[in-house]
From TrEMBL:
<dbReference type="Pfam" id="PF13302">
    <property type="entry name" value="Acetyltransf_3"/>
</dbReference>
<dbReference type="InterPro" id="IPR016181">
    <property type="entry name" value="Acyl_CoA_acyltransferase"/>
</dbReference>
<feature type="domain" description="N-acetyltransferase">
    <location>
        <begin position="22"/>
        <end position="174"/>
    </location>
</feature>
<protein>
    <submittedName>
        <fullName>GNAT family N-acetyltransferase</fullName>
        <ecNumber>2.3.-.-</ecNumber>
    </submittedName>
</protein>
<dbReference type="InterPro" id="IPR000182">
    <property type="entry name" value="GNAT_dom"/>
</dbReference>
<dbReference type="GO" id="GO:0016746">
    <property type="term" value="F:acyltransferase activity"/>
</dbReference>
<dbReference type="InterPro" id="IPR051531">
    <property type="entry name" value="N-acetyltransferase"/>
</dbReference>
<keyword id="KW-0012">Acyltransferase</keyword>
<keyword id="KW-0808">Transferase</keyword>
Amino acid sequence: MSPNLTTERLELRLIRSSDDAFILQGLSDERVTKYYAVHYHTLEEVQEQMKFYQELIESQTGIWWTFSLKGESGLIGACGFSSIEPEHRKGEIGFWLLPEYWGKGYIPEAAGAAIKYGFENLNLNRIEAIVEGGNEQSEKVLQKIGFACEGSLREREIKNGQFIDLVYYSILRSTWTQHLHQA
């Protein structure tokens, strides 16, 4: 259904059920999940996430990839879409990366490939990103790849017993095309 994606330094492939140990590695690390909606402790718990990825594909409401450095088998991160609404031609992007690979530009590169796929293959016109307040690194990534901040919803959700803000970003197909020509 979905081709593998390749960038200058990365190879992205569709998440598969055998990736559960890697997904647990990332989504059990508190540095990764500090601003993430889920956190897992066991392989049994992570099966919920694996089911989520599979249901996205089956319902055609999303698609997620894992990615590795080109020519290497070890996975380093994941990115993809959820909340795809074909009738409105929009989807929501998400991403995460193992901490030992932070600061090397891998997320903008992987997310850029996913965004290109979203606009060119999924026929999206709008890609959204929702960032928890305080997650400055994700905001910087989104700004770097051409997303615009649309505003904050103050104290929108409760996480760990505390109200958190959600910051909304988006990129439109027309903006993305302009961003590509400026890059």
